[in-house]
């Protein structure tokens, strides 16, 4: 990698760090190419990204972002998972680490808040942004559904009574 490619990589990572809501630092303890591809696919499905970057370049890219404290976690064979949704990257990384002992969660950061391994696991147990939206919509729609049922109930009962009288007279 020459100097211009390195500066491009640092600029790209810096732009990513300025846009995302969470960064998860993982340590690769011997993942095969197939396992790494599987992890990237699971991250992509969750709405997150997973990138292996040189620690020195990643540390340079962290400068002047809210994730500056992550520099101390960048040692050894590390990789970064990140997403705009504060839960997506953490959830995908933790789920993959449960089934594969060659991936270790080192820590991360949500906004300016540094998180250790336990913090990332706690973050992963929270509902995602889409799940929260679905819950809120369900709570908003529940009263309207109940009102519609109450308003329609007398008409339904009246229709059944007329239907019963009609069937009685036909017999």
Report on the architecture of this protein.
A hairpin with a 2-residue loop joins strand 4 and strand 5. By secondary structure, this protein is an alpha+beta fold. The chain folds into two domains: 124 residues, 2-Layer Sandwich (Alpha-Beta Plaits), CATH 3.30.70; 45 residues. The model has no long low-confidence stretch (mean pLDDT 87). Strands 2-3-1-4-5 form a five-stranded antiparallel β-sheet.
Provide the descriptors you would attach to this structure in a database record.
alpha+beta; large ribosomal subunit rRNA binding; rRNA-binding; Ribosomal_uL10_bac; 171 residues; 16% strand; 2 domains; Ribosomal_uL10_bac_type; structural constituent of ribosome
Instruction: Indicate the structural class.
Output: alpha+beta
Helices, by number, come to 6
- The name CATH uses for the topology of the largest domain is Alpha-Beta Plaits
Shape descriptor reads elongated
Protein name: Large ribosomal subunit protein uL10
GO molecular function: large ribosomal subunit rRNA binding; structural constituent of ribosome
Function: Forms part of the ribosomal stalk, playing a central role in the interaction of the ribosome with GTP-bound translation factors.
Keywords: Ribonucleoprotein, Ribosomal protein, RNA-binding, rRNA-binding
């Amino acid at each position: 990698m020459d100097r211009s490619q390195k500066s491009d990589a640092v600029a790209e990572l810096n732009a990513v760090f300025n846009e995302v809501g969470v960064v998860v630092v993982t340590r690769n303890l011997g993942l095969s190419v197939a396992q790494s591809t599987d992890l990237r696919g699971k991250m992509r499905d969750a709405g997150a990204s997973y990138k292996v970057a040189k620690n020195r370049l990643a540390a340079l890219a962290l400068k002047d972002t809210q994730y500056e404290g992550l520099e101390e976690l960048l040692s050894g064979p590390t990789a970064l998972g990140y997403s705009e949704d504060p839960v997506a990257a953490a959830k995908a990384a933790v789920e993959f680490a449960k089934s594969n002992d060659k991936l270790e969660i080192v820590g991360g950061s949500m906004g300016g808040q540094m998180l250790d391994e336990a913090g990332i696991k706690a973050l992963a147990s929270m509902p995602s942004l889409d799940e929260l939206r679905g819950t809120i919509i369900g709570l908003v729609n529940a009263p309207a559904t109940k009102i519609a049922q109450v308003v329609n109930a007398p008409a339904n009962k009246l229709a059944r009574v007329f239907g019963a009288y009609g069937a009685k007279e036909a017999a």
